[in-house]
Amino acid sequence: MRLPAFLQSRKGRLAAVAAIVAVPAVVLPIVFSGGDEHGLPVGAGADTAYAFPVTPDHIPDTPVRVNQVGYLPDGPKRATVISDSSQPLPWQLKDNAGKVVASGESQPRGMDPSSGQNTHVVDFSSYRGTGHTYTLEVDGKASLPFDLDPKAYQQLGVDALSFYYPQRSGIAIDGKIAPGYARKAGHVAESPGGGDSKVPCQPGVCDYTLDVTGGWYDAGDHGKYVVNGGISVAQLMSSYERSPKAAEARGLRVPEHGGKTPDVLAEARWELDFLTKMQVPAGQPLAGMAHHKIADAAWTGLPTDPAADTQQRQLHAPSTAATLNLAAAAAQGARVFEPYDKQYAEKLLNVAKTAYAAAQAHPTMYASSSDSTGSGAYDDSNVSDEFYWAAAELYITTGDKQYGADVTASPLHKADVFDRAFDWQNTAALGRLDLATVKNQLADRDRVRQSVVDGADRFLKTMDGQAYGQPYAPEGGYDWASNSQMLNNLAVVGTAFDITGKAKYRDGVAGGMDYILGRNALNQSYVTGYGEKASKNQHSRWYAHQLDPKLPNPPRGTLAGGPNSQLQDEVASAALRGCKPQLCYMDDIQSWSTNELTINWNASLAWVSTFVADNA
Asked: Which residues are listed as membrane-spanning (predicted)?
């Protein structure tokens, strides 16, 4: 039996889970056409063949868990070993010729509650050599290979940011720019369902149509969501803003490469342009607000090429959360684009001011939690954090005292916004991080900066207490998108380095990346194309090699959501029931609750990987 890939990819989609039923197996070949209401593929044949190097499925397992990509020569180098021994174990670090270059004994750590494994930790940080294809042998058992290289993260940063080009809507993807990923433009006027060039609202929402072409497909589906686009584009712009010179020198695989605007901002502009199109036009009811999302009227199949989508596209009702995401992202965009395109920066600032005023006039327009047919609900009934974030970005950009007053009047301004990982539904930390690092005249800015450092110290303490060194230890199991939550915690630690210059924060970020790249209970790198055993079957409609060999796996540098104790999809629920938190993951395209890809998760990977590359 093949369980249905019900294309629900966020917590907001959980209301419809009860509708899932078991269905008979579907025999390959899978097609690039459509599907039933659960996303099951139908039909036969595919038009476009893609070339993609597929990682072997059978990688020998080893109890010695390392960062399968590499360690910085002057950074922390730790591994975790699974062993029932209660005594220290001998270890040897060997270079690619088999020569022992360092040795010592492991530190027993006992039972790790997040994995249920008895563990040891090996610390070989004192070795400062460089080279490729090292292995770590512990008690006679060897790890997968890794490098010791100051440039270990440079390509990962490029790939994580280049992920967005093949996610673009409304443009043909050029195979010369993204080899193996060429496809026709999706959701343009000539698309089967009429595309995004003249989209009506859901019945009863509005009586106009909007051109909302462009932007990024949110995840493995064809929806485009303002509340997820906001945090995603903000983190891309922040990766530029924290280190402009490094960002200007970083070439991405984008059509705009070589222009006067840095590549990362050119990519961000593709999304910002879409977000501005989602604003309710002047003269209409709710003018200045932003529509929550644009998506298909019903779920499309798995796989479905964006250009082959036949569903009617619909604008969903405006929401306060979406409007504030637009205000925050556009305000940040106004200041980062000002040196390159003043006219565009002025447009973004006007959009931001209009959106913020509209949100103030309509502060309780919440997206419905039941609006999950054909798209994720992305519901959020607490928008105090979005108000704080938007006010912070507008204040930083304009210096306007009223926006500053809104920042300091917010109950979140003196609250601990780092008591949990930030995400699309919890955005106050985005405002706090920018207030701490981007020049402004906030009266209590020193306290704001210290709050970031305090948050980073807690995450470092959490890492020290984990056998696998991850900056994440929630009670009751791992959450949806645990990998992104870990990376966002590392972004707080990295920001503390920018504030203080203290090496422990830089080393903390580098050490935290080890978990993402293989030092974990599954010996799994969660980034496609990075590591001997790397995720490659993330849930997606057009990166669907697992279902149709003619289609590609996701591009190099694509982050998988990661272990999720809730196991909302039927594939994971059937296979992993009762799993320990770190083990609640499977690299299967049908496991949307553990193995989806999204624009916001890759934004966290991009921020952290470029931070490490820039500070190597």
From this structure: 12-32
CA angle, 544 then 193 then 176, to 5°? 45
In what order do the strands lie in the sheet containing 64-65?
64-65, 78-82, 117-123, 107-112
Residue 149: is its pLDDT beyond 80? yes
Catalytic hit among 539, 545, 548, 614: 539
380, 587, 588, 614: the active-site residue: 587
Write down the H helix ranges in 318-383. 320-337, 342-361
Instruction: Decide if pLDDT at 3 tops 50.
Output: no
Report residue 58's pLDDT band, with 50, 70 and 90 as the boundaries.
low
587 is catalytic: yes
Q: Is 241 a catalytic residue?
A: no
What sign results for the dihedral spanned by CA atoms 394, 484, 154, 450?
positive
| Residue 472: partners with Cβ closer than 8 Å, 6 or more residues away | 421, 462, 466, 478, 482, 485, 486, 489
Q: Can you give the pLDDT at residue 193?
A: 86
* Domain boundaries along the sequence of the chain: 64-148
User: pTM for the full model?
Assistant: 0.92
Is 379 in the active site?
A: no
Q: What token pair was written down for 548?
A: 């149709």
In total, the chain counts a number of residues equal to 616
Distance CA 267, CA 251 (A): 11
For residue 441, count CB atoms less than 10 angstroms from its CB and return exposed for 0-12, middle for 13-18, buried for 19 or more. exposed
pLDDT digits (tens, 9 = 90+) for 569-613: 999 999 999 999 999 999 999 999 999 999 999 999 999 999 999
Residue from 196, 241, 596, 614 carrying the catalytic annotation: 596
CATH, domain 64-148, list 3.40.800.20, 2.60.40.10, 1.20.1440.230, 3.10.310.10? 2.60.40.10
